[in-house]
Amino acid sequence: MIEEKLIIGMVILHIITTEDCTHEIVSFMQSENYGITTLDATGSRGNVKMFLSLVNRIDVARITAHLQSVNPHAFFSIEDVRYVNEGVFRSKKAKTLSPVCFIRLYDPERKNRI
Length: 114
Description:
Blueprint: H1 2-6, E1 10-17, H2 22-31, E2 37-43, E3 46-56, H3 60-70, E4 75-80, H4 99-105
Helix pairs in contact: 2-3
């Protein structure tokens, strides 16, 4: 998909674990300003904890790397999101170019253009 190549948009991250690492997962996601839902569930091998979070696609690698360090045997899956109505979302930082920066980037006389 083009979204994966451009690393844009949001995804739903499902995490399922049998180990008691709830505090580490929840506190990390909250420290990153993501909302997270925790559920007690029953899997095919017994009781599990299930976590759901809506995250920016660009942050998935960092979040899953942390998850692997806390619980290398945790199961996780990632689903594309098309529409979101309400929730707790990470704040967006303004990424705007000043007119001077824009002119410098697209100056035809500039040797190292992007």
